[in-house]
Design a protein that fits this description.
656 residues; mainly beta; Maltoporin, Chain A; 24-stranded antiparallel sheet; 4-stranded mixed sheet; 57% strand
Length: 656
């Protein structure tokens, strides 16, 4: 995952399991890179790359502003201004951007909560469960030097602050069926508080018409304290949320009553306090040239690059235990205890090339990436060389290539084979007797595309063979990283779009589109995961991979008439399971576990409309989940969670 071509995960080498995603609502575009292009980026090269692209800066003058209001008091504003000037000093531009969002969330507590009692942060009200507040400003500077060859310097500084009232707590299946949008009182202090700061300096030089070079220096830091419910009456909340939490399996009815706030008892919170740092330098040189072999002209697009990277994560955790009163949710502090002090850091170096050679109607693409990482793990004050203070080195080489045949201006055929590689964190890689092995994969695809003025379609068949599949900590939700064995994922994807002329009996332009993906992702042999908390534990040969639906569909109609636009979209995904054991018992092994159940299929209807007042002003409105379908969207991390209910919003936009 990238932002502006730079790794944006808090510490992609030292903490590949860290929760973070860029703020999509303020992005200019989202780029998907697959094939040989994925070798330019790492350290995880399986499946491709998602590159979030922020608002670009240029030497022109423009301004944008938007305000939206929606269900659950969801308010957001987004604005930016770009100003550029030119003189004897070259050309200089500045871009300033701001984004703000606030809402109440769509869940309500099962009873009264403590308005202003114990706890390290501000409390929030009965109706604010799942609410958030976010602010994200950004500044960019661009300078084109007054030199003969084009040389530009671009600087960026961005900040993203999130205050989110959410944790791991889910529901029992029975409580979900009664009210899917409730949340238990015992989770009343759940809060994710995070700050992300990102900086880069890019120097782009057009050395000649055919040789261009970009050097990037970057620095990212991410702080977060996720204060969330961990145990109720001394018991893991995923066990209490299981329908199998009965006396026969060591359970009782008391704990769920405390969880809901109906009975007095103890609740324990864990502060997952993390500090992440990442910085480095990377360089890419593009060569555009032609050769002649056997009287055949070959046009080359060659990219060569390298990267040096350092990142780290420091974990300082503590727990707080409270006495929670019945029917009022009032909390009084019982105890405070240290939980963990761990540090992980990684130094990495990578080199890659990507070549695209065009020979008549054929395009041959191939590339490779070599990666070296040196990782260090320390827990507490352990002595260097002992199990809790170790270093580990890993090397990876991932090649691949593809062939495209452009039959004519309408038809294109292509196929490709690529190798993928995935690292675990220093804690998993260290040789403590059971080190986690790197994940390896081989991806194959074969497809055809067709396009003309009114119709386009593509069909892609794919197969990926995984070995030593990595199960990261956030998949285990509390367990350690693990290898789950082999997986084979295969299927096909069909995408179509049709814009007929004079199709309707009245004026307007219409486009129909439909996309369908079939995926058969199965364990190839029994799962090798030995961690009882892993969602792959107990998986048998041929079982489906959790949370990967066989059928995914998206289709709809877009209509435009003059300044008006309308759209209807339908999405569907088939049911899955929360664990590789594919059980509905809500038991993992012999332990009650709310994750071990079915994830519902869902068909959602979404509507949108817009009106362009003039070239500067417009209004849009939309409704998501228009049928207000209630469905289980996840059982992770610790119980049943509902998909988003019916929501509506209206948005005003001004651009100059």
């Amino acid at each position: 995952m990238l932002e502006d071509g730079i790794n944006i995960a808090p510490a992609p080498y030292s903490a590949p399991d860290a929760y973070y995603s860029p703020l999509a609502a303020k992005m200019n575009s989202i780029e998907i890179l697959k094939g040989s292009a994925q070798f330019r980026y790492g350290p995880h090269t399986t499946g491709g790359v998602i590159n979030y692209q922020t608002t670009p800066i240029d030497f022109g003058q423009r301004a944008y502003g938007s305000v939206s209001y929606g269900s659950h008091n969801d308010i957001s504003t987004h604005a930016y201004g770009n100003y550029g000037i030119t003189g004897r000093y070259g050309a200089i531009a500045i871009l300033a951007e701001a984004y703000w969002r606030d809402n109440d969330g769509f869940r309500d507590f099962t009873g009264p909560v403590d308005a202003d009692g114990a706890g390290p942060q501000d409390h929030y009200g009965d109706d604010d469960a799942g609410g958030l507040s976010q602010i994200a400003p950004m500044v960019k500077l661009l300078w084109q030097l007054p030199v003969r060859n084009k040389v530009t310097l671009e600087l960026k500084g961005a900040y993203n602050s999130l205050d989110y009232y959410e944790g791991y707590a889910g529901l029992t299946t029975a409580d979900f069926n009664n009210d899917p949008f409730q949340r238990y009182v015992a989770s009343q202090l759940d809060n994710m508080n995070s700050e992300a700061k990102t900086y880069y300096a890019k120097i782009h030089a057009e050395i000649t018409d055919d040789i261009k070079n970009t050097t990037t220096f970057y620095y990212n830091q991410f702080y977060r304290d996720w204060y969330k419910l961990d145990r109720v009456n001394g018991t893991n909340i995923r066990a209490i949320s299981s329908k199998a939490y009965t006396a026969a399996r060591g359970g009782n009815t008391t704990d769920i009553e405390i969880y809901r706030g109906d009975r007095a008892g103890t609740v324990r919170y864990k502060s997952n306090d993390r500090q992440y740092y990442a910085y480095g330098v990377m360089n890419q040189t593009n060569f555009d040239f032609a050769t002649n072999i056997l009287n055949r002209r070959i046009d080359h697009d060659l990219k060569v690059g390298f990267k040096f990277h350092y990142d780290s994560i420091n974990r300082d955790q503590y727990t707080d235990t409270y006495n929670q009163a019945a029917n009022t949710g009032t909390l009084t502090t019982s105890s405070h205890a240290f939980d963990a002090d761990r540090n992980q850091k990684t130094k990495g170096a990578a080199a890659y090339f990507e070549e695209s050679a065009t020979i008549n109607n054929f395009v041959v693409s191939f590339g490779s990436r070599f990666e070296y990482v040196k990782q260090h793990y320390r827990s507490g004050a352990a002595t260097m060389g002992t199990t809790n203070n170790l270093e580990e080195k890993t090397y990876a080489f991932v090649p691949g290539g593809g062939l495209t045949y452009n039959h004519d201006e309408n038809w294109q055929w292509y196929g490709a084979v690529y190798k993928g590689f995935g690292f675990t964190s220093p804690s998993g890689a260290r040789d403590d007797g059971t080190p986690i092995q790197p994940e390896k994969s081989v991806q194959k695809e074969l497809g055809v595309r067709y396009a003309d003025e009114n119709f386009s379609a593509s069909f892609i068949g794919f197969k990926t063979d995984f070995d030593n599949v990595l199960v990261l900590d956030n998949s285990n939700t509390g367990g350690d990283a693990d290898n789950a064995g082999k997986i084979v994922s295969k299927g096909f994807e069909l995408m179509t779009a049709y814009s007929p002329e004079n199709f309707l009996p009245f004026a307007g332009d219409t486009t129909f589109y439909a996309n369908y993906t079939f995926t058969n992702a199965n364990l190839d042999g029994d799962s090798t995961s030995t961690d009882s908390e892993s969602i792959f534990s107990g998986g048998r040969d041929g079982n489906n991979v959790p949370y990967v639906p066989e059928h995914v569909f998206s289709g709809g109609i877009d209509y435009a008439y003059g300044p008006f636009t309308f759209g209807i979209n339908v999405t569907h995904h088939s049911e899955t399971h929360g664990t590789a054991a594919e059980t509905d018992t809500e038991v993992s092994g012999s332990t009650p576990d709310a994750r071990a159940g079915k994830i519902d299929s869902a068909t959602l209807l979404n509507l949108r409309g817009g009106y362009e007042i003039n070239k500067n002003y417009s209004i849009t409105a939309g409704v998501n989940n228009a049928t207000d379908l209630e469905y289980i969207s996840s059982r992770h991390p610790d119980g049943v969670r509902a998909g988003k209910p019916l929501t509506a919003c209206v948005k005003g936009i001004a651009s100059f």
